[in-house]
């Protein structure tokens, strides 16, 4: 506000002018007080809003962090399960390899061919007993007996009777194929 000069009156300044000026000053002061209050309220509201934003951001951050930790735990559990399955497979595979694979030498093949010769003799004697009709012979049971004999010689103990039957069946097909090749050569 500008500086105000008052007219002189009989006893000092003109009372109406002073009152009018004081009213103007009062209005200006009230205007500043209102602006000050509005600014204070705006600052308070801004602070409250900022606090709420920060609080909500912290809550959301904790929620996201919790989900991330949970997801990481689930992924780690999945990795652990897959790792366990892989180790179990590796162990089973190694046991299977140890059980069925060994180095074959000439003596092993000599025993195999000896068993084949025994089988041929057995089949020949069965042919004589049953005549020329060899279709009545059960080749799987004959070969299974031979395979059991080979297993006993090689000391490969089956884990159970079901495993022995399965391993016999697994070995029967190649032996029958071998015998079929031998019979084709004879013809």
Q: Could you write a compact summary of the structure shown?
A:
The chain has 187 residues and is mainly alpha-helical. The chain folds into two domains: 8-92; 103-182. 82% of the residues lie in helices and 2% in strands.
Structure description:
This protein is mostly helical and 187 residues long. The chain has two domains: 8-92; 103-182. Helices cover 82% and strands 2% of the residues. It contains four helices and two strands. The chain has a two-stranded antiparallel sheet. A hairpin with a 2-residue loop joins strand 1 and strand 2 (12-13). Helix 2 (106-130) packs antiparallel against helix 3. It starts with 7 loop residues before the first strand and ends with a helix.
Protein topology:
Elements: E1 8-9, E2 12-13, H1 15-100, H2 106-130, H3 139-154, H4 161-186
Antiparallel strand pairs: 1-2
Query: Which regions are unreliable across 5 or more consecutive residues at pLDDT < 50?
Result: 155-169
Strand order across the biggest sheet? 1-2
Structural class: mainly alpha
Describe the oligomeric state of these chains in a short phrase: single chain
Envelope shape: rod-shaped
- Mean pLDDT across residues: 77
Name some characteristics of this structure.
two-stranded antiparallel ribbon; 2 domains; about 190 residues; mainly alpha; about 80% helix; 4 helices; rod-shaped
């Amino acid at each position: 506000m500008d500086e105000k000069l008052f007219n002189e009156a009989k006893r000092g300044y003109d009372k109406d002018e002073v009152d009018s000026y004081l009213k103007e000053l009062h209005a200006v002061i009230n205007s500043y007080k209102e602006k000050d209050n509005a600014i204070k309220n705006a600052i308070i509201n801004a602070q409250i809003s900022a606090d709420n934003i920060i609080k909500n951001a912290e809550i959301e951050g904790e929620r996201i962090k919790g989900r991330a930790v949970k997801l990481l735990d689930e992924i780690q559990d999945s990795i652990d399960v897959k790792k366990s399955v892989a180790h179990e497979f590796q162990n089973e595979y190694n046991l299977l390899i140890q059980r069925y694979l060994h180095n074959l030498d000439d003596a092993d093949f000599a025993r195999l061919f000896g068993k084949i010769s025994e089988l041929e003799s057995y089949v020949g004697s069965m042919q004589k007993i049953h005549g020329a009709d060899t279709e009545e012979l059960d080749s799987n049971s004959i070969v299974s007996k031979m395979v059991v004999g080979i297993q006993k010689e090689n000391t490969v103990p089956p884990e159970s009777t079901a495993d022995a039957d399965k391993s016999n069946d697994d070995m029967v097909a190649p032996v029958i194929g071998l015998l079929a090749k031998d019979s084709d050569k004879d013809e």
